[in-house]
Give the backbone structure.
Amino acid sequence: MEAAKLKNILEAVLLAADRALTVPQMELLFSLDEAPPTRDEIRKALLEMEQDCSERSMELKQVASGYRLQVKQEYATWVGRLWEEKPARYSRALLETLALIAYRQPITRGEIEEVRGVSVSSNIIKTLLEREWIRVLGHKDVPGKPALYGTTKEFLDYFNLKSLDQLPSLAEIKDLDQIHPELALEDDAPAEDQTDGTAPETGGAAPAVGDSGEQADAGITGGGDKDGDSAPQTAADHSDDDAMEQVATAAPSASIH
């Protein structure tokens, strides 16, 4: 198959897909063809597509679940106006809890409270579980058997990450508000009272639409798939507990489908 035709087919498939696609999944699409492309040819075509998108409004992004075509972040403001409903803002308490889980997993709720110095709202844990950003990895062998939490591939996909290695180091994080002012964080007190762990809707980055991508060939971390057949990679342990409270991640771009 000609390289140009292969790229066009892959682009069409990724535009139509409502989820991320892996290279093996893309390969299956050609199983009925007389001369199907090899995996290496597909990977080469994807690389060329990534380069072709450098001057376009969309980009080919590889996240934990695979490859997806999405709008570049710089155009999210205009794309976001397609939706009348504004995306919910995330409270500081929710982001700090999520950051602790991402950097210290596996971690218990009690350990999160010990670092933050305040109790963790049940609504925050419920929200993170419902959005499939975290999952229960097991239970700690101590009295009470508290649940151990870790991040998921959905968390990595939402924040445009291939693995936890792409998270910023604590040394790179100075001030939460300065890094991502568009998150418009609320104070801890009212945020803890929110029923879903989010602040009132007032705007923000364009929502992720139709996430898609391939399970990364190398070291995907963050909890594996929902069936639990892929063990999560434990994030490196950091000693600076105070800096941990200032961790935030970038808002996602809008996916194309």
